[in-house]
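Task card 7
Instruction: Convert sequence to structure tokens.
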Amino acid sequence: MKIKSYAAMEAGQALTLYEYEAAPLNAEDVEVDVDYCGVCHSDLSMIDNEWGVSQYPLIAGHEVIGRVSALGEAAKNKGLTIGQRVGIGWTAKSCEHCDACINGDQVNCLNGSVPTIANKGGFAEKLRANWQWVIPLPEKLDAATAGPLLCGGITVFKPLLMHNITATSRVGVIGIGGLGHIAIKILHAMGAEVTAFSSSPDKKQSILDMGADHVVNSRDPEALKQLAGQFDLILSTVAVDLDWQPYFAALAPRGNFHTVGAVMKPFEVSAFSLILGDRAVTGSSTGSPGQLRSLLKLASRADIAPKVEYFPMSKINDALEHVRAGKANYRVVLKADF
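Output:
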């Protein structure tokens, strides 16, 4: 069987229509017909080989919503059915038997989890993943907007689980873009007090409408100083280097500064910023199948939906340039039209 896709043939080049011959379906794998696929900055990083690990032809795309079209023999008794709506995020496979996998931390598989992109991703008419990573979509969840929850959403949801965030927590979010706006919506649904740090004052009302309780101009040093000692968690979603010291100072005792943004320059933090107040700097990647299921259930129950723009997949290069130029109205989703 041949599968149509859009692939990068070399680093940084426009994607081209590309057909590949699919191997027989592995026993524990599930094949999914793609309906929607979100566009993430990490897709651009892989297409451009910014991280030095890309192999070409490369089929990116890892925020997939689709329908089960085939089940491997060992995947037929795992609760998935033909035609069922499902999602696939950053990870497609893990070994299932190492200590991390057995403990429900499959994303940190000690034998190496396999990214969806490395397994042939969602910029295609079909893709495949191990049954564990094929996440059932709650019936009430809107399939057209759900894709970004599977990468952007889980990336900001996992730190809230790690740091035991509750309705009594005070949380700051740095960067109100594709990741940060989802973080605000999730935190609002959880009942936490949310402060958004934004460099765009003109976004204030729209950020408040998302569920933020306060919006602070991140370019105003005096405004940052007034927040000293307040936050249980500050979640940074930005991938650029900033003056981090005011944010460390804004942490409450035992507070955590947590980054999910891929800042390439090392963080500069004085030891006393951490020692005084028992504070910590932490980070995380995406989440486990169990965490993904929990997020989709919460999104369904609390009506959490990313703000998205749509492009037909046939206009994928336009969509990628839209994201690359920073013009995306938070998230971009491709609608399959093969």
